[in-house]
Structure formats: C-alpha cells, structure tokens
Amino acid sequence: MLGVALFTALIGGCIYKLITGLRSVRWLPGLRVPFAPMSLFGVLVPTYWWNPGSKWSWEWRQTNFMSHKHEIISIVPFIWGRPAYHVGSLNAIKQILEAEQRRTIKPRDLMVPLLLWGENLISSNDEMWKRHRRIMGPAFSLSTLQVLNKTWNQLEKAMHNLVATRKKELDALGVGGERPDDGVFTRLVSELDEDAKHGLDKGEVIGNTFAMLFAGHETTANTLTATFGFLALYPEHQDQVAAEIRAVLGDEDPTLDTLSALPILQACFYESLRFFPAGVTLTRDVLEDISVTVSRPSHQTICLEKGSRIIIDMVGVHHDPNVFQDPESFKPERWHNVPEHLVSMFGLGPRGCIGRKFAVTEAMCFLALFLRDWEVDIVLQDGESREEYKDRVMTKAGMVGLAFGVGPITLQVSKRS
Ligand code: HEM
C-alpha cells in the first residue's frame, strides 16, 4: 500500500514538474527527458536514446533540433534539472548574443568551477564584467600581437635576454620577493587595486590568470589537433596549404602581415573549428524578455522569457545543414572571403572571445612553420580505407581537457620534399 502511494506520489511529482517546466518555456516543442543535460544526473547518466546526457549535442548532431527543422527547442526534464531553451541556429544566436548586454547574464550556478580562483572575465556580469573587459582588452590588442612579428632568431635572442633579465631580477629580489612578468599577467598585476573600483583586486587578478589558462589553452590545442587530423586525412588540402605557405613565406619566418596572407591555411583552421567548436556550450540566464525571429519550423517570433535559461549548442549551430551545406564534410572553401566578425565559433557580440586574434595568430604561426617543413599523414589500420579511418577517428569527439574537440590522433610525420 505504502509502495503504491509512494509510486503515485513520484509519478505525480514528475507530471507536475513536466507541466510547470513546459509552461515556463511556453510549450515550445522539444525534448522531454528524465534529466536536463547540464544537470548533475544529466552528466552522470550516459547518453542513451532516452537520456541526452553530456554527449547528445555531438552524438545526435545530425538529428538534433528535430533534424534541424527547428532553430530553438526546449528541453524539459521531468525528474531532475531545470528546463531550458536550446538554441541551434546562427540566425538565433546572432539575435541573442549581439544585443545581449543587460538582457542576459552568465548563470552563476554554472560558473562555480570557474570561480575556484576568483572572479574573472568569463564568469562576471554587469559592471564587474565591463571593468574586467576594459582592463583585459588591451592585452589582446593588435599592438600586443606585434610581439609575434619578431623573427624566430629574434625570439631566440629575446628568450636569452628574458632569462638573463629574470635572473638579475630574482637575484635583486632575493627569496620571497614579488616577481615581475611580461604580457597579460603584467597588465593584470599593474591594475591591482584592492578596492577594485577601477582596477582588479588580488582575487580577480588570480581569477583572470586562471581564466586565461582555462579559456585559452585547450581550445586552441584541440583545434590544432583537428586541423592536423583533417590535413593528414585530405592530402589535396594539405598540398594546397603547403604551396601557399611556400609562396607567401618562402624561407622567411612569419610576421603578422604574412600570416594574414594565408587564407587557405586559415580556412582549414576555421573549418576544423566549425567541425569541433572548442567552446561548445554557451549559457545565459534571461534578465529581460528577448524576442527572437526564426524561420524554422515556420516564420515566427519566439519570446525567451525573463527568468528562463538559454543554452547555445555550438555543435548544433555549426552543423546546421541549412547554413553549412553538407556539414559532415570538411570543406575549408566555405570560409574563403568570410569577414572575421562572421566567424561565429568564437562567439558573437560583446561577450565574444577576447582571445580570438591571439588564438588564430598563434595557431596559424605554428601550422605555417610546421607544415612548411613537414608532411603529415594518417596511420591506417590493416585493410582500412580512408573513409573508414574518418569514421573511426575523426568523428569521435567530446571534452578533451576543458574544451571540446576530437580525441587523440596518431599521425606519421615526414620531411617535406
Ligand atoms: C580556438 C580557440 C578559442 C575558441 C574556439 C574560443 C571560444 C570562445 C567562445 C565561444 C567564447 C564566448 C563564450 C560565451 O559567449 O559564453 C569565448 C570567450 C572568451 N574567451 Fe575564447 N576561445 C578561444 C581562445 C581563447 C584564448 C586564446 C583566450 C585567452 C588567452 C580566450 C579567452 C576568452 C575569454 C576571457 C572569454 C570571455 C570573454 C567575455 O566574457 O567577455 N579564448 N571564447
């Protein structure tokens, strides 16, 4: 008897949760699931047909968003987690992100892991975000990137000088002294201001240092892995890239000018990033109603209500066949002549990636120098075709460290003739 009562209460609870959830997203069509994908159980329970789990965005990418017939869907859990709007179209994210100031904030509960070392640019909102962005912005300006203009030899010399200078500084400071540094960190420290009215307090300096490592390292590294993987898989693209690098760089070291004259290489990098968007999930809580005009499933305006949660699925957005024709194919040419501000894998609007220029410059520099001298090829298993290799290796993706990307790839490298 007690069992029946408990069971009835449980079912009743689920129905109540489902109905209130559906009401909160205004009955927008979508998935009705036991656990919200971004909740604790949503992550712990693996992806099955009945549970989206943490891998649904990638594993269901071809059929997600109701086979991309909807630009925005709702995911409403009936056991655990909060209902949310899931956005999978470029058109919709443009409308949400480009005018987002004051209309949305980063959800505080989802930012907890990022706050481990203190408030930072990624986690902060409102006035605090403005202060952090104003301080961090100049560290990523073009003039800062000019440092990459130095030739390889100059870099080597600079490194020697740096070591010598550091040695002198450390000797002068003695044990336990404060240690000056160059670059973003120096900028952060120079803005140290314990009241944190205009500058940053110590926690924020540390928080932002961590944020740079968090946001800047594995994102670029994973995209480089994917770029090498695709170029090894498709030698015709690699040959074009190598010819371009030879023609533009010759035997010279890259400069900002020559790096920007490598559109074929850049397109390969962007296409790899489209395939595996390293910043895979962008989250927002809605502060003011947002109207988004969509054309799928029909032309209509969807109101994302104040108090609701938005989850932007960057895999969904960048594998949408309505925008990226034949999305499962590697087609770098789709990025030829696309203006920088339309490269959506770095986010859009005021909260777009602050490190975008840095990441692209760093990656292009590495790719250009490597591929000028070395050829990469895939390692096939016995009797395996290149197409089978693609399915085995280049469609396995997930979180690699703190960013999304393809798993480990084994390549063979030989000297370019
Ligand atoms: C391929 C490399 C990278 C990709 C794909 C990438 C992607 C993104 C995306 C999609 C966002 C927007 C997040 C949102 O709207 O919620 C973002 C923001 C951010 N990125 Fe990157 N990123 C990359 C490299 C870097 C690097 C190298 C750094 C710094 C060294 C960096 C630092 C940041 C920071 C601090 C933010 C937050 C900006 C703000 O909220 O104002 N990223 N990134």
TrEMBL record:
CDD domains: cytochrome_P450. GO terms for molecular function: heme binding; iron ion binding; monooxygenase activity; oxidoreductase activity, acting on paired donors, with incorporation or reduction of molecular oxygen. InterPro entries: Cyt_P450, Cyt_P450_CS, Cyt_P450_E_grp-I, Cyt_P450_sf, Cytochrome_P450_Monoox. PANTHER family: BIFUNCTIONAL ALBAFLAVENONE MONOOXYGENASE_TERPENE SYNTHASE, CYTOCHROME P450 FAMILY 4. PROSITE patterns: CYTOCHROME_P450 (PS00086). Coiled coil: none annotated. It comes from the Eukaryota. Heme binds at residue 353. This is Cytochrome P450. Keywords: Heme, Iron, Metal-binding, Monooxygenase, Oxidoreductase. Its cofactor is heme. Belongs to the cytochrome P450 family.
